[in-house]
Specification:
By secondary structure, the chain is α/β, with parallel strands linked by helices. It has two domains: 6-221, P-loop containing nucleotide triphosphate hydrolases (Rossmann fold, 3-Layer(aba) Sandwich), CATH 3.40.50; 244-339, no CATH class. It has helices at residues 48-56, 80-86, 98-101, 108-119, 124-137, 143-146, 156-168, 186-203, 214-220, 238-243, 248-255, 328-342; strands at 6-17, 20-32, 37-41, 62-70, 73-74, 91-94, 174-178, 206-210, 223-228, 231-237, 305-309, 312-315. The strands form two sheets. It has an eight-stranded mixed β-sheet with strand order 6-7-8-3-9-10-12-11, with helices on both faces. A four-stranded antiparallel β-sheet has the order 2-1-4-5. A hairpin with a 2-residue loop joins strand 9 (223-228) and strand 10. It is globular. Bound molecules: adenosine-5'-triphosphate and magnesium ion. Adenosine-5'-triphosphate (ATP) is lined by residues 15, 24, 42, 44-50, 61, 96, 276-277.
């Protein structure tokens, strides 16, 4: 077996808008080794969940190209029945939106018991006991009571924990965690991150960790991929990325968060948003419209990821001359503070 747990080659996932297909994930390649945590970061709409759903083979209305290999098996070409044996078993996902992941008509314990049944050999009694144990391990108080509840009877944070219990139930070798801790307070968040580490320690599991929370990235990730408008614009070992960010988008993301407040904050970058799929200019550097103070000649026509240091890849030459624009709002706030202090 190769040393890669997951290998993604030129993944392109397109959605149909008004009769035409537009890529939400555009020629994305990366790999994850056993025991490795790869964080995938980027603003809302950059294509993180669309990537995750593509890996799991869960899109129903998308056109997908490229290949995905899991433990050297080409799962991107697998039929539904073979994929069903892997999904929820060796390869599992924590969904960003718990309500899409849970069956509203099924008691919590049955949802966990169901996934245990598909992928395991325990008796019904054992499955029930283990379901309650799992609820306990994801930090749910009174797990025996919650086991008997329906999803709609639970708070958002509790539902998210149930989704995590379902995902880790069969001790996956690859865990795709899409915003796993967003709705959780810091104590539970720490507990969930510990559970993920436990999977790594026990089984050498690899993790694709999608999060807005750069504090979680700093704590968990071995490598970080930064996604903008469907493309990876920078990918590097985590320490290198935090110490030496290069792409204007990465630098804007990191700059938008004062480090002492990093934990728990959502990413807010400079003015503007990720453009809608059908309004995106895909001819040059996709981030160029967000940094209009840069000269057009700084960008490449058809920017590709290039290795600029060991294991550190950046797209487009604009990183070489990029400078952050002083944020007028910040300057204004600073002036107000000074005035407040004087008065
Ligand atoms: N099923 C779909 N049909 C059409 N467009 C879609 C579909 N799913 C996602 N998109 C579009 O694809 C782009 C990427 O969406 P995606 O959900 O992957 O973003 P994301 O990075 O996960 O954002 P967030 O941080 O808000 O979760 C967006 O423009 C979104 O509107
Ligand atoms: Mg998402």
């Amino acid at each position: 077996m190769s040393e890669k747990l997951l290998e993604v080659n030129s993944l392109t996932t397109s959605f149909k808008i008004k009769g035409e297909y537009f890529p939400a994930v555009d020629d994305v390649s990366f790999s994850i080794k056993p025991n490795e945590v790869l964080a995938l970061v980027g603003e809302s709409g950059s294509g993180k969940s669309a990537t995750a759903f593509s890996l799991m083979g869960l899109h129903t209305n998308a056109r997908i190209k490229g290949e995905v290999l899991f433990q050297d098996r080409k799962i991107s070409e697998m039929g539904a029945s073979r994929m069903n044996k892997i999904r929820g078993g060796d390869m599992a996902m924590i969904f960003q939106d718990p309500m899409t992941a849970l069956n509203p008509l099924m008691k919590v314990k049955l949802q966990i018991m169901e996934t245990l049944k598909i992928h395991g050999s325990r008796s019904k009694q054992e499955r029930q006991a283990y379901a309650i144990e799992l609820l306990d391990r994801v930090g749910i108080p009174r797990p025996d009571r919650v086991a008997e509840a329906f999803p709609h009877e639970l708070s958002g944070g509790m539902r998210q924990r149930v989704v995590i219990a379902v995902a880790i139930a069969n001790r996956p070798k690859l865990l795709i965690a899409d915003e796993p801790t967003t709705a959780l307070d810091v104590t539970i968040q720490a507990q969930i991150l510990d559970l993920i580490r436990e999977l790594q320690d026990d089984l050498g599991s690899g993790v694709l960790l999608i999060t807005h929370d750069l504090g979680v990235v700093a704590e968990m990730a071995d490598r970080v991929a930064v996604m903008y408008a469907g493309e990876i614009v920078e990918i590097a070992p985590a320490r290198e990325l935090f110490k030496n960010p290069q792409h204007p988008y990465t630098r804007s993301l990191l700059n938008s968060l004062p480090s002492e407040e990093m934990l728990g904050s959502r990413l807010h970058v400079i003015q503007g948003v990720v453009p809608a799929l059908n309004r995106m200019d895909r001819t040059g550097c996709r981030f160029a419209p967000r940094i209009p103070w840069m000269d057009a000649s700084a960008h490449e026509d058809n920017p590709q990821l290039r290795e600029i240091a060991d294991q550190h890849f950046v797209r487009c030459t604009c990183y070489k001359s990029f400078e952050l624009k002083p944020d007028e709002a910040d300057i204004e706030a600073e002036q107000m503070n000074v005035e407040g202090g004087n008065g």
